[in-house]
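Service request form, structural biology core

Requester: graduate student, group of Dr. S.
Request type: structure prediction, single chain
Budget code: on file
Notes: please return the result as structure tokens.

Sequence provided:
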Amino acid sequence: MITSCSGSSANANLQDLTWYNKATISQISEDPDHPKEFLRISIGISPQVFYLSKKNASYTSLLEKLNQSLQKGKKFNIGIENNTNIIKQITDPK
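Core staff response, request fulfilled:
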């Protein structure tokens, strides 16, 4: 799987995000250190680990998209907050 990463965005509100374009999820699990706060999300064949906050207002919709990717291989553009490794946004690739 080829995943591209982009640090820029046209939207000023998204400048603090690094984007993984056309990425697929390889694993979703509870974070062993903070199971009530985060899920661990692995992206790609040689997985990079990121986190989904259970306190995020969009948690349910983000998790639904992550599960679609994991179970059906659907590709998404995934926005990771810089310096935290927390998934903040998921969009359909254009």
